[in-house]
Amino acid sequence: MLMPGNHIDGAFAQFIKVPEKDIILMPDEIPLEEGCIIADAISTPYHAVVNRAKVKLGERIIVFGCGGVGINVVQIAALQGAEVIACDIDNNKLEIALELGAKYAFNLEKNPVRDFLKQNGGLVDVAFEVIGKPETIEAAYKSLGLTGRLCIIGYTNQNIAINPAKIMFYEQEIIGSIGCRPLDYYEVLKLVKEGKIKLDKLIANKYELEDINKALDELRASKVLRNIILPNGKGQDTLY
Questions:
Q1: How far apart are CA 28 and CA 98, in angstroms?
Q2: Of 20, 77, 108, 188, which has the fewest CB atoms closer than 10 Å, so is most exposed?
């Protein structure tokens, strides 16, 4: 998998050469300013929830990290009919998680995970880690019950400590998830067009290209879910 911005330079260029198979027509019903965040912010969690973790109706799930990707794990899992628990250290993001379908939301700095789960229905069927820290990956794993599934979306190259005996005795699974398949975009666009996936709550600020570093700094500092760049300041002729 080759991704502009990660493996190929030019993600913020006016034009970029990509394979024809990766070009998908944006429906007229979806404003470009909102639709530009579908790639990654929506498509990555869609793949994780639907294709990798295979979340089912009535399952109980927990999402560690409600940033630009994690918040949509919440939204898409709720759309699948799951009972969703959201956790983060930012109360504003937790409020948005509740608006997008989470049944419970709690602050990781104020509530131990095990205590919260014990008081609110017990262990979960699926845990998603969307932060990329060893301690939250381990906490996500410990939240699993019998035949539970841990889906790791957050990236870290550090080692983690997980007891393999529990994986065997509880018949649990650890699943990795990255990006999405090109064909997934058709279903994602359909869900957005039908209003089942919300985009409007995800975009915090719109910046001109000259202020792109400010936009990226806000993302690095976890101050916003998503910023977008409008090189002309406004309008839909050019957008990154």
A1: 29
A2: 20
Q: What is the pLDDT of residues 178-232, one digit of tens each?
A: 999 889 999 999 999 999 999 988 999 999 988 999 999 998 888 899 999 887 6
> Angle CA(51)–CA(54)–CA(56) in degrees, nearest 5?
140
DSSP strands (E only) in 108-221: 124-129, 144-152, 173-176, 203-207
Separation of first and last alpha carbons in the chain: 21
What distances in angstroms separate CA 103 from CA 6, 44, 51, 99, 180, one per listed residue?
A: 35, 22, 23, 9, 26
Is 225 within 8 Å of 198 (Cβ atoms)? no
> What is the distance between the alpha carbons of residues 96 and 236, in angstroms, rounded to a whole number?
26
The domain limits of the chain are 39-176, 203-240
